[in-house]
């Protein structure tokens, strides 16, 4: 078999190119895809199953947490550091702990869980949580938890 000449190769390539351009169509002849409907409701949860295993996606609606940290010394350190991961209610419902126990908890958050708390803020956070524990031991925790306005928190918190 004889090798094709350069003019035959050029003609073949040109023919393939012309055929491809005709198949693709003229620029602007295609409609863009329809935009996604952002107002639609979410799809139903999907499920995937296999031998001895079922995985299902779920939707979880978390409750709104309107509780705030009661005003007091070092509340700014709590709001600046702890609310990134915890709601105020979570801290307000903790059992009363000593200063050393709270220090260990704060250090656990920093060192094990990677909480971005500056070393300089640790004493203020521990002091706030220890004072909160003292109020809880005195039976004042419910008035603190139910209070969401700063003015109410200071009136209900006691001395």
- What fraction of residues sit in β-strands? 5-15%
Tell me the distance between the termini.
Answer: 105 Å
Number of DSSP strand runs: 2
- Known CATH architecture of the domain at 75-156: Orthogonal Bundle
- Report low-confidence residues grouped into runs of 5 or more: 141-159
Strand arrangement within the widest β-sheet reads 1-2
Inertia-based shape: elongated
Helix content: 40-55%
Structural class: mainly alpha
**The CATH topology of the domain at 75-156:** Cytochrome Bc1 Complex, Chain D, domain 2
Number of helices: 7
Quick one: CATH class of the domain at 75-156?
Mainly Alpha
- C-alpha Rg (nearest Å): 33 Å
The CATH H-level homologous superfamily of the domain at 75-156: Cytochrome c-like domain
Rounded average pLDDT: 78
Q: Write the H/E string, N to C.
A: HEEHHHHHH
Strand count, sense and barrel status of the largest sheet are: 2 strands, antiparallel
Summarize this structure as a short list of keywords or feature phrases.
two-stranded antiparallel ribbon; disordered C terminus; single chain; 159 residues; elongated
Task: Write a brief caption for the model.
The chain has helices spanning 6-24, 75-81, 88-92, 99-111, 122-137, 141-146, 150-156; strands spanning 47-50, 53-56.
Description of the structure:
The chain is mostly helical and 159 residues long. The protein has a domain at 75-156: Cytochrome Bc1 Complex, Chain D, domain 2, CATH 1.10.760. Helix content is 46%, strand content 5%. The chain contains 7 helices and 2 strands, in the order αββαααααα. The protein has helices at residues 6-24, 75-81, 88-92, 99-111, 122-137, 141-146, 150-156; strands at 47-50, 53-56. A two-stranded antiparallel sheet has the order 1-2. β1 (47-50) and β2 (53-56) form a beta hairpin. α4 (99-111) crosses α5 (122-137). 12% of the residues are buried. The model is unreliable at 141-159 (pLDDT under 50).
